[in-house]
Amino acid sequence: MDDLNERLCQLVVEARNCPSGSLARQQRLYQIYQLVRKSGKLWRDSASYYNDALQEMWEYCFQHLEEYDPTVKRVVTWLDDELKRRLRRYRDRHRRETHRQIAPSLTEEGSICDPVDNLPAKPDVQPVLDIWNNTVDWVHRDSEKRLRKTCFRHRSNVNCQVLFLKRFPEETPWKTIAEELDLDEAETKDIPKWYNRRCLPLLRDFGASQGYIDESDSSTHPKQP
Question: What pTM, to 2 d.p., does this model score?
């Protein structure tokens, strides 16, 4: 658990340091989501509204990372507390609706008012998960073959598609990638620079085409370690 929390804390710090709305920040958020999901440590509930509360929890916490204080609680505990808070709200709302007679009534003007119309609308915020599922799908499909054709030093086995799949969301270290691709010392030194110069622009183009980033704002360009 300590190793998990240490890694999650590191990702929170990295995400905070990335520009809001950048692909680099979304990448860290997706890693947090994946690590917590795989750990099985998150609070579970059989309530019918659990998934709605879970969705709201992820959206809120990812938008308010600055509120997390590692000196007070673990990352999973912070997520759990927010999830339970939202579950209580759903439960209280359900109880109020159960005890309230849901029937149309007349307003002072004499028109019919249905209490259901006054229930709050569900927030329309695109989940980080959807963004990264779409991005990974784009890398795998590479329908125009731009990623596969963009090769490092004419080596067809070292291209943008291969590097993207290795670099996100797990961010495999460059040293490990170099060993897996059998790169020599000079190539190992140059591959991160080539990745930033040739591969990241393709990723930014895709993000802009999907509306994930605004290319007119240079601050949204992702930073890579």
Answer: 0.56
